[in-house]
Amino acid sequence: MPANLPPQYFETEKKLKTAKTPEERMSILEELLSIVPKHKGTEKLQALLKTKIAKLKSHSHKKPAVARHESLFKVDKSGAGQIVLIGPPNTGKSSLVKTLTNADPEIGNYPFTTRIPYPAMMKYENIQIQLVDTPPITPDYMETGHAELIKSTDRTLLLMDMTSSQLEEDYFFFIEKLREKKIELVPYSQEIPFEMKHIKKKTLIAVNKIDLPGAEKNIQLIKNIIPAEFKPLLISALNGDNLDRLKKDIFSMLEVLRVYSKMPGKKPDLNEPFVLKKGSSLMDMAKAVHKDFSQKLKFARIWSKNKYEGQKVNRDYVLEDEDIIELHI
Question: Of 17, 91, 115, 116, which has the fewest Cβ atoms less than 10 A away?
Fold first, then answer.
């Protein structure tokens, strides 16, 4: 459908070339938005104008000191691991965080509703995982602090919009923008050398809004543009489709395990696991319980799924998820 913009729009648009301040530019953009006829043919133009206005508003709230502004993107890690949600505008990141965590981030159907990181805790079985909602990333807009947050986080979750009319462009522009910031997304099954951990980020890709009209026609497109190694998961933050699977994949992506400490003659507390990295040994667990345990440990007994029933194990034993350990000093 054609936009059919009135002459007044083009006359007002010319003022942008002579605007000297962000405030003046924002005023002209708001005037243009009020002039644009509201129908399907102008939806993209309306979205573009709203994005530009939101960006200028965001810049107007910045402090003069760069270091102070970038500190807004510093989020202390909490729980079993930190997952930063990233994506183009309006993919539903805030809605997903709200559904998975019961937090209450601001949600809107316009770009840049989220302006600073919003951390919240997601319960997975008997642990908590930190999810961080972040502002959208566009081909021409990404905060320096945002890039540093992505580089420092444990893992990332890239969310795409299954109903987007420019899904392919959204994906490739997004990937290219991250590359400009020296960030490369890789499947979470891929091994990464230690020195590359701030450049290559293990990532889970989810495609949202599969419940909405127009989603079905993009299923094949998703398969064509996203490398199969990522195994993109189709979800609905609104209806809850595949969210249990998403939570399980998030846990798997963190590559952590849960172990329980048991006192002799007593039952373990299965609600308070120690969370360790996969590959951790019995000695790592002993240090996590108390520093003295690693120095004075005589032996340990282990109970595990379909394997051990109180057998003694040595200090080099490699732990598995949900092992129950009885330490003797």
Answer: 17
